[in-house]
Amino acid sequence: MAKRVFFSFHYKPDNWRASQVRNIGVIEGNAPVSDNDWETITKKGEEAIEKWINEQLDGKSCTIILIGSNTAGRKWIDYEILKTWNDKKGLVGIHIHNLKDSDGKQCSKGSNPFEDFTVGQEKKKLSDIVKVYDPPYTTSTYVYEHIEENIEKWIEKAIKIRKNPFKT
User: Fold this and answer.
1) CA–CA gap between residue 86 and residue 75 (Å, rounded)
2) Cα(40)–Cα(163) distance, rounded to whole angstroms?
């Protein structure tokens, strides 16, 4: 049975890479948004963006942050991370820098987007709780295959971790 997940990624540079991951059959993700749709949403202001993100997260059990070169620190990705965490849903990161884009190019590895967050009374770094996976290949095909083979168990692990995030 396909898992219902939300995909978070930096749209312009990583949309092509993200679409590859989103097309893996073991997961059911949010509907793709075109450039025009995203422009329409963003022109309506921050409340409209938050509303759209909240609607996309509704009914999902996990958020997958697809990490490209400049994913970390982006305002709306940060919002999605915090919203997912506060809603007690699974959260996982996957580096996608070695997947090719539509021009056949790879990009540099981005920073861990969970590094700047602390959670709980313990003020524990979110990067110490949330797992981030970096496929151990540089060939795009092998990176895709590695993600395809592992993504379902990564999602399950993220959901399990979120149920008891401060367990040592």
Assistant:
1) 16
2) 36
Q: Are 68 and 97 in contact (CB under 8 A)?
A: yes
Q: Say if residues 122 and 116 touch (Cβ distance below 8 Å).
A: no
pTM recorded for the entire structure: 0.92
Cα(first)–Cα(last) distance of the chain, in Å? 30
HSE at residue 71, side-chain half, CA atoms within 13 A, is 32
> Closest Cα partner for 151 from 129, 10, 159?
159
Helix (H) or strand (E) holding 41: helix 35-43
pLDDT digits (tens, 9 = 90+) for 10-59: 988 998 999 899 888 666 665 555 545 777 888 999 999 999 999 999 99
